[in-house]
């Protein structure tokens, strides 16, 4: 299942401290990694969320980045103050060994472009820099495949389209939700208490479809009907579904809704 999600930059509005906000982002990141989300879109829901939007995007990107590249790609900043206590993600490129002897031809690794003595190199997490002759700029992250390990390690850059296994999510920011919906090529589920109750047949239809699926969430204090207004009826290939009809009067936190809905989609896909 090719799954992406869209969340508002006001997603952290129901948390008061940076520690609690960071923990919430960690849960969102972990849910997206567990259920193999391809892209997390963050859309601008309104004014006043600039700091939370930056925090949300920064920690999501940081947690998805392999540990061995974080120092090279992220400067020391207050928004990452609590990053060390957040749950790690179980993504394939996070568990790679730093021992050069463990490298095998055709292995995939994430790399960061770094400058050393006026030249560009690749850091692939083996305590040894590899010369880089491409055009990408410093601190750019790329994916490489090991070409040889002896007598020296050589690599080639590859596209994400050549990676068959799940390799992590991307984080993209957009100025508004309609911008995402109009660009999306595939199916869309808008999650709302005002939507029709989701049926098993509908869920299985989406879960087993070859088309990419975008799962859209509203804000803690404003649902998608409030955010989109009348435009909600103009979006193509879209259904508005309520996945929790028995909890219509209860407050469901974003992270709980994400985990619940993606669990349901995953279950439908496996049956």
From TrEMBL:
Source domain of life is Archaea
Q: Which CDD domains match?
A: HsC9orf114-like
Question: Pfam families, alphabetically?
Answer: Methyltrn_RNA_3
The protein's organism comes out as Candidatus Nitrosotenuis uzonensis
Per its UniProt record, what SUPFAM superfamilies does this chain match? alpha/beta knot
Q: Which InterPro entries match?
A: Alpha/beta_knot_MTases, NA-bd_OB-fold, Put_MeTrfase-C9orf114-like, tRNA_m1G_MTases_N
Name the chain's protein. RNA methyltransferase
């Amino acid at each position: 299942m090719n799954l992406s999600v869209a969340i508002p930059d006001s997603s952290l509005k129901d948390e008061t401290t940076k520690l609690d906000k960071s923990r919430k982002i960690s849960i969102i990141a972990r849910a997206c990694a567990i259920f193999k989300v391809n892209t997390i879109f963050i859309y601008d829901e309104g004014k006043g969320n600039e700091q939370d939007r930056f925090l949300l995007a920064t920690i999501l990107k940081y947690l998805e980045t392999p540990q061995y590249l974080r120092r090279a790609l992220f400067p020391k900043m207050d928004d990452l103050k609590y990053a060390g206590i957040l749950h790690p993600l179980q993504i394939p490129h996070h568990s790679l060994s730093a021992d050069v002897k463990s490298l095998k031809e055709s292995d995939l690794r994430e790399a960061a472009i770094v400058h050393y003595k006026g030249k560009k190199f690749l850091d692939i997490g083996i305590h040894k820099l590899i010369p880089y002759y491409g055009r990408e700029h410093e601190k750019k992250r790329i994916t490489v495949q090991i070409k040889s390990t002896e007598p020296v390690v050589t690599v080639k850059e590859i596209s994400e389209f050549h990676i068959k296994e799940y390799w992590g999510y991307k984080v993209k920011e957009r100025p508004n939700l309609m911008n995402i919906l109009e660009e999306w090529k595939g199916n869309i589920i808008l999650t709302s208490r005002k939507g029709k109750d989701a049926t098993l047949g509908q869920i299985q239809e989406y879960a087993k479809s070859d088309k990419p699926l975008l799962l859209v969430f509203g804000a803690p204090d404003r649902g998608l009907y409030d955010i989109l207004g009348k435009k909600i009826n103009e979006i193509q290939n879209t259904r508005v579904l309520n996945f929790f009809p028995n909890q219509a009067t209860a407050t469901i936190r974003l992270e709980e809704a994400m985990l619940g809905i993606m669990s349901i989609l995953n279950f439908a896909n496996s049956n």
